[in-house]
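TA notes, week 10

Several of you asked for a full example with nothing omitted. So below is the full record: structure tokens for the whole chain, then the designed sequence directly under it. When grading your own attempts, check the secondary structure regions first.
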């Protein structure tokens, strides 16, 4: 994929994130390619009642990074949908910021899988996650799914 297409996908992602869960959680992307996406999120505001980073917040960060990587892998005119996410929470984070690095493990035409490692400011692993996404052709606005027309039934 060319640099212009990459920049368009990242720009669309950032614009769509402003008024979504990604924006409300303070997630920022610092580097992005189909092979690797890096981003961070504050612990403050994303905690559970005991003041520790919420495990669900780690999953949101992981899915955000992996999904952007999958979108960059898929390229223009295609969409990605998360199929499965798993997370192992290794240690608590109570303050500062956590950083996630999503690394592509598999990149096919219809499926991508990313491993996402989330670390605290001291570089200690907080969470390891794995995300698998489905890649589909984008359905035109007001149109129909061309694959559905080919499906017998």
């Amino acid at each position: 994929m060319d640099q212009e297409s990459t920049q368009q996908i990242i720009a669309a992602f950032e614009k769509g994130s402003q008024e979504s869960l990604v924006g409300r959680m303070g997630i920022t992307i610092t580097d992005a390619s189909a092979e690797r996406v890096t981003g961070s999120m504050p612990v403050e505001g994303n905690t559970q009642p005991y003041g520790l980073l919420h495990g669900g917040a780690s999953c949101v960060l992981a899915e955000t990074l992996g999904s952007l990587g999958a979108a960059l892998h898929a390229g223009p005119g295609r969409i990605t949908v998360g199929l499965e996410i798993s997370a192992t929470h290794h240690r608590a984070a109570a303050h500062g910021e956590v950083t996630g690095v999503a690394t592509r493990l598999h990149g096919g035409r219809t499926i991508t899988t990313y491993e996402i490692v989330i670390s605290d400011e001291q570089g200690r692993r907080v969470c390891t996650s794995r995300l698998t996404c489905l890649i589909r052709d984008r359905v035109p606005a007001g149109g129909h799914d061309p694959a559905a027309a080919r499906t017998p039934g």
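The chain is about 30% helix and 35% strand. Use that as a sanity check on your answer.
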